[in-house]
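User: Show me a protein chain along with its predicted structure.
Assistant: Here is one chain, sequence first, then structure tokens.
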Amino acid sequence: MCEFGCSETGVVESRKVFDKLDKVDVVSWNAMMAAYTLNGHDEDALNIFCQMQRTGMKPDHFTFTIVLGACLNPKALEQGRQVHGLIATAGLLSEIPLGNALVTMYSRCGVMEDAHKVLSKMLRRNTVSWTAMIAGCAQNGYAEDAVKLFCQMQWESFKANEFTFASVLMAYASLANLHQGRQIHTHIIKTGYESEVSVANALVDMYSKCGSIRDSQQVFNKMPKRDVVSWTVIVVACAQHGHGKEALELFRKMQHTGIRPDDVTFLGVLSACSHVGLVEEGRHLFDLMIQNYGIKPRMEHYACMVDLLGRSGQLYRAEDFITKMGIESDASIWETLLAACRTHGNMELGKRVAERLLQLEPHRDAAYVLLSNIYAAAGMWDAKAKVRKMSANRGLKKEPGCSWIQVKSKVHEFIVADRSHPQREEIYEKLEELTGQIKDAGYVPNTSFVLHDVDQEQKEIKLSHHSEKLAIAFGLISTPIEETIQVFKNLRICGDCHNAIKYISKIVGREIIVRDVKRFHHFKYGPCSCGDYW
């Protein structure tokens, strides 16, 4: 049955053999459950387990390990808890493989508190135990905890394996900590795991998310073996760093190697087309995905196409694309189009799209924010006030813009017009100096990005105090002149800040990297890697 169960057809054959057995022992039950689990039929595996219990057959530790593997999603959490109880009743909690399986189950279900309880109660642990917990923290947004666990694991003299390194690299990628990421890379080289495909893939991803596309490319180019994930990660990395044409060239090379792209690869390459405005190339790839590779588009693929058309200003074509998708559009699709209406100042279509978006999700704050921004940009302050009032009546609050920069292992956060920083006097003095210098160099403030009804002078002051400008000013007074300044922002960078940073980068002679919610912007002595198309 194990041999049969290694394929979809094999599962059916396995079940036929299983149903004909005169005597079913625990090994047979385990084999049938394993066949279902290996092929993604978790519900069937759980049903077999229940059937086994009804016969009075006593499960062994292999049974519990297999059935926990069928509880790796939040919908099966309750069944996972019940299995946990059965393991305790059977007196098997001291078994390391079962403890590891429980940590993995709770982690994959997003219940990290319970995963940690299991780990802390394990009398004996191994590398798999630590790795399961580190991976769970990294995957569930507890990156700092993942790093602390990795350090504790090393302190307790457990050796990391390729899965441990891949998991902790995911945590460093989330923290965007390039310095520590490089340190762990050195450790990986010393332990001989750099050639492992999963580790190399994680390194490419980590360097990309930490802002160093050069390091990503170097790791990728040195890989002795590559899989579909390797190619997908580097394609996505190039797309996010403004190297859209390189991403497309890598995609073509991937095809020539014979490695079949998957749905995530196509998301990356479609995003690359969107970032550089290759509309027809994007449409060709979308059709290629469906017709040549038989991949059914997900909502994310449709959103990429709407973004591609919207960025290029083809707003009505994007709207037509949505209505002809063949599946029910969700709010994210309409929000993408509404953002494009804001960028291109199309108030007529923006109003219609906002109405459609609010029908789908009346409490989606982005709809109110984008629509009010459209009105503000057009100087329709009464209409803007009306939209903001509607938002307030629903109890919605706009997410404040926030930028942060790491200097000497400490993160410094800024909001617009922030005066809470201990070095605020030096920061504002530097910012005033920079503003004068870039104006002399030809910078003209674009006050259409000020969404308040105030006079021209006040608009220019508000623009100069945006959070990313404050973070850059702090970086300039706090770091060596040869060091690249890297700033992160939780929202999309505004057009005026984008233009101002080009001038700042040129005047100070330093590379400035800004990672916003959409992509990386590399300002190198003036020009930006996005080519002013974002």
